[in-house]
Amino acid sequence: MAADATWSSDGGGKVTAARRPVEGREKVSRFLVGLFQRFAAGMRFTTAEINGEPAVAAWAGEALLGVVALELPEGLVVHARAVVNPDKLAFADRQPAGA
Questions:
Q1: Is 95 in contact with 25 (CB distance < 8 Å)?
Q2: Consecutive 10-residue runs of the chain (99 residues): their mean pLDDT?
Q3: What are phi and psi for residue 71, nearest 5 degrees?
Q4: Cβ count within 10 A of residue 48
Q5: What is the pLDDT of residues 15-25, one digit of tens each?
Q6: What is the DSSP string of 19-41?
Q7: How far apart are CA 72 and CA 2, in angstroms?
Q8: 89 contacts 66 by C-beta, under 8 angstroms
Q9: Cβ atoms within 10 Å of 37's Cβ, excluding its own
Q10: pTM of the prediction?
């Protein structure tokens, strides 16, 4: 992860998400540890591609809970963009694989 890495979230005001970007390697790392400790039990994760960027999708059973697109120049995470807005996820979940 880059020293100046940033995490941003889009909950659409419908679900809990970070309201402001989380900035810096240490803060983003602590934020992610907290997320995993609180929410990761029972989830499964798959890889995806979102807008040409590598991404991770989080699932609970067949329900898509969120996607995180990763900006990775030179192999380091510079920006992670999380979408947990249920309206946007419903749209993404309806898209054919590879679209």
A1: no
A2: 96 82 97 92 92 92 92 95 90 59
A3: -90, 115
A4: 16
A5: 878 889 999 99
A6: SS-EESHHHHHHHHHHHHHHH-T
A7: 9
A8: yes
A9: 9
A10: 0.84
In this structure, what token pair is assigned to residue 20? 């402001």
Indicate the SS3 state at residue 86: helix
3-state secondary structure (DSSP) of residue 50: strand
User: Sheet holding 63-71: strands in order across?
Assistant: 22-23, 6-10, 79-83, 63-71, 53-60, 44-50
- Token pair belonging to 61: 């059973």
| Gap between the Cα atoms of 23 and 36, Å rounded | 18
User: Counting beta carbons within 10 angstroms of the beta carbon of residue 89, is it exposed (0 to 12), middle (13 to 18) or buried (19 or more)?
Assistant: buried
